[in-house]
From TrEMBL:
Entry keyword Transmembrane helix: yes
Family: Belongs to the TMEM45 family.
Annotated InterPro entries: DUF716
Cellular compartments annotated: Membrane
Highest taxon of source: Eukaryota
Pfam families linked to this entry: DUF716
Disordered: region residues: 286-309
Keyword Transcription: no
UniProt lineage: Eukaryota, Viridiplantae, Streptophyta, Embryophyta, Tracheophyta
Name used for this protein in its record: Plant viral-response family protein
Length: 309
């Protein structure tokens, strides 16, 4: 039961974070495309009234992120003290694997806490956005490494495949953060990063259902009855045919979640555009991105004006 509850918490946290970042990204690029630049954190809009209350509300998403990372860090640290005879190498390997995951969450937690303190205290200088994205890229890469290592030590093919797919999403997030560190105006990378976080949240939910809920465990697989619920590797597939079928089902569900995230992206963009008052007025050409393009457009306009005269 504990494993499923943690997966539910992780899923809700990641979905909330990803959807909030996606909404803010779409809103900023629609309202001011010329001044748009990706940010690792978007504060809530300022409301009229008490300035102190406004400051607290603006930092609410960051505070929720810090609380979620704290819970994840404590969870990984605590389970490292539990015995787990079902992973390769038994309990000692499980302990160091869990501590590795806890260290990754600690890295994200330290960055988030510094970001909150720099926003609150004038004595701390906020880190540049490109440096924050670079740190996030390193954190996601470490999470990819930790998830890949966790998949390698699993005796359960079902859990190993779940961890492997989660690692791939983390690798994608790492690449997107690195792109944003180099190209902060790359809107596609910013939206894809938020969508990838949503995908990770959905996959955490699917992992919990496939491993810990009897009604969602693939046919031919089962949970071991002589171990406590939620222990890594406790969901096993005894027959090779059942293992292959379970892996194919997980691949199908992962693709379904990707489709759901794409639909969510379209719906979110439409809703944000309506809320921002953006209306389609016809076809348009891309705005100039450098001075030479601007000069060329000015020359063309002058020539047209002279011809009409």
């Amino acid at each position: 039961m504990g494993g499923m509850l943690y997966k539910l918490f992780a899923s809700a946290s990641l979905l909330t974070l990803g959807l909030y970042h996606l909404i803010c990204t779409f809103f900023h690029v629609l309202k001011s495309p010329q001044s748009y630049a990706a940010k690792p954190f978007y504060p809530l809009p300022r409301l009229s009234g008490n300035n102190n209350n406004n400051n607290r509300l603006q930092k609410l998403p960051l505070i929720i992120l810090i609380l979620s990372l704290s819970v994840a860090f404590l969870h990984q640290t605590l389970i490292s003290f539990y015995s787990d005879p079902l992973v390769k190498g038994s309990t000692p390997v499980h302990r160091f694997s869990s501590l590795n995951s806890a260290a990754v969450f600690l890295l994200f937690l330290v960055v988030a806490v510094y970001l909150l303190l720099s926003e609150s205290a004038s004595s701390l200088i906020p880190l540049p956005s490109d440096l924050l994205f670079a740190l996030a890229s390193g954190g996601f890469f470490l999470h990819y490494s930790a998830a890949s290592s966790s998949a390698a030590i699993q005796t359960s093919d079902l859990q190993a495949h779940c961890d492997s797919l989660s690692a791939r999403v983390s690798a994608l997030c790492s690449l997107l953060c690195l792109l944003l560190a180099c190209r902060p105006r790359l809107f596609v990378a910013d939206a894809a990063l938020a969508a990838s976080v949503c995908l990770q949240g959905l996959w955490q939910l699917q992992t919990g259902l496939s491993l810990y809920v009897d009604g969602f465990i693939p046919e031919g697989c089962h949970r071991l009855l002589d171990v406590s619920s939620g222990v890594e590797g406790s969901t096993q597939c005894d027959i090779l045919e059942s293992k292959l079928r379970a892996v194919a089902v997980l691949d199908l569900m992962f693709t379904v979640h990707v489709v759901l995230v794409v639909v969510l992206l379209f719906v979110t963009y439409t809703m944000v555009a309506m809320a921002a008052g953006v209306r389609r007025t016809g076809s348009y050409e891309a705005l100039p991105t450098n001075s030479s393009d601007s000069n060329n457009h000015s020359i063309q306009m002058k020539s047209l004006t002279g011809t009409q005269a």
